[in-house]
Amino acid sequence: MAKAYIIGGGVAGLAAATALARKGAQVELFEAGPQAGGRCRSYFDATMGQVIDNGNHLVLSGNHAVYAYLERIGAASALKGPDHATVDFVDLGEGLRWKVALNDGLLPFWMLRAATRVPGTAAKDYAAFAPLLWAKKSATIGRVVRPQGMLWRRLVHPYLLAALNTEPENASAALAGEVLRQGLLAGGRACRPRIAEPNLAAAFITPALAFLEKNGAKVHLGQRLRRFTIAGTGVRALEFADATIPSGMKDAVVLAVNAPVAQDLVPGLCAPNQFRAIVNAHFAAAPPAGAPAMLGVIGGTAEWIFSFPDRISVTISAADGIVDEERESLAARIWRDVTAALQLDAALPASIPPWQIVKEKRATFAATPEQDALRPGPRTATRNLFLAGDWTQTGLPATLEGAIRSGETAAALAMRHLQL
Predict the structure, then answer these.
(1) How does DSSP assign 339-404, residue by residue?
(2) pTM (two decimals)
(3) Which end of the chain has fewer CB atoms < 10 Å from its terminal CB, N or C?
């Protein structure tokens, strides 16, 4: 029986592998690292004395690919969040706090009510960003809308910065439009924020590996693919450090690695070549009672603060300007924002609690029009080789939803090749 070989054990690879295994394919997955998960991973941090995530991956209730994947691996209840689409914000510079509260239906009545929209804005301000919905793929956000004003500063900028991981003024207007279309404009039922609890591995990785084992798939960790042997129009062998696995034309190969690795393995592959950093800070401190699960921060180094029962985590997007900063000073600066944002001054410890800084220097591709145009589709010139990853052309920026969609698309093509 023909096999499906999955190269890469991140979320895109796991999505492809589980989709194929569910259809009865003989699946073998190879991951270069010592654990699966890629940029969606958890690990025990000795400094903090607890399990932490490498970063905070926000999911929306309307992310259909994410929920279909979690349903398949038996982890549909692993995401937690509020019953309604409500997000808390604080402006550290102005000392102002507010909530943006979307109504459940598609019609955005929340924009019409002063109590539920961004303070200092009027309903007409929101219409000014509508041109993003039909923007050309070659346009930047800064050329389509005016990146200024209260609405921009207090909602649009932080929202798009987090979604695109690229400074919004220079980012793709078309990708921004899709983010808005599937997020804020999809109605409150589709826009409820969701976070993995207790951690990313428990939600996205461990159940997937268990599903693969139950369905007869083989998972190989610590196995880095060195090269393909390609003859004619097909992959004929997979060469690893200690073994070469022959592959026939009837087999399917899904390459679900990052863009630079994919380009090393596939000669002539066009792919994004500019990337943006993300910095995450984790503090072993219980948040104060009543702290919001997610808090948007304006006017500080910290951008989003996530409160878990046993820790406080901070995410900073498009962090190229600080990613090389000395870790101790960076942790101290972020902790000052946390104490101000969560109003911890009264209970401030004598020193910063145990902390960890996680830096991803090439976390995502730069979501500019030029880089978006370099994203390849799932097919390659090699008939039995398919691509997956959030850097491929998913129509979305580099998100969990996009990564899982790419894995599903590659799996569908592989199934067709395998005649499943």
Answers:
(1) HHHTT-GGG--SSPPSEEEEEEEEEEE--SHHHHTT---SB-SSTTEEE-STTSS-SS-S-HHHHH
(2) 0.96
(3) N
Q: What ranges in 232-346 are assigned the alpha helix state H? A: 259-265, 327-341
C-alpha to C-alpha distance for 162 and 176, rounded to whole angstroms: 11
What are the start-end ranges of the H helices in 63-144? 64-72, 123-127, 141-144
Are 138 and 16 part of one and the same domain? Answer: no
Mapping DSSP to helix (H, G, I), strand (E, B) and coil, where does residue 155 land?
A: helix
Q: Are residues 384 and 262 in the same domain?
A: yes
Q: In terms of domains, do 104 and 234 share one? A: no
71 in any annotated domain: no
Q: Considering only CA atoms, give the Rg of the chain.
A: 22
**C-beta atoms surrounding 72 within 10 Å:** 18
What pLDDT band is residue 285 in, cutting at 50, 70 and 90? very high
Shared-domain flag, residues 372 and 262: yes
pLDDT digits (tens, 9 = 90+) for 196-242: 989 999 999 999 999 999 999 999 999 999 999 988 889 999 999 98
What amino acid is encoded at 49 in this protein? G
Task: Write out pLDDT tens, residues 383-395.
Answer: 999 999 999 999 9
For residue 279, give its domain range: 275-365
Give the sign of the dihedral formed by CA 38, CA 44, CA 47, CA 52. positive
Nearest 5 degrees, angle CA 57-CA 279-CA 99? 55
- CATH code assigned at 209: 3.50.50.60
Q: Decide: 275 and 363 in contact? Cβ < 8 Å.
A: yes
Check residue 10 and report its DSSP letter.
B
Domain count for the chain, please give it: 3
Tokens standing for 346?
Answer: 């009264």
Q: Which of 191, 213, 243 is the last residue of a domain?
A: 191
Residue 91 DSSP class:
E
> Could you tell me if 388 and 258 lie in one domain?
yes
Phi, psi of 329 (to 5 degrees): -70, -35
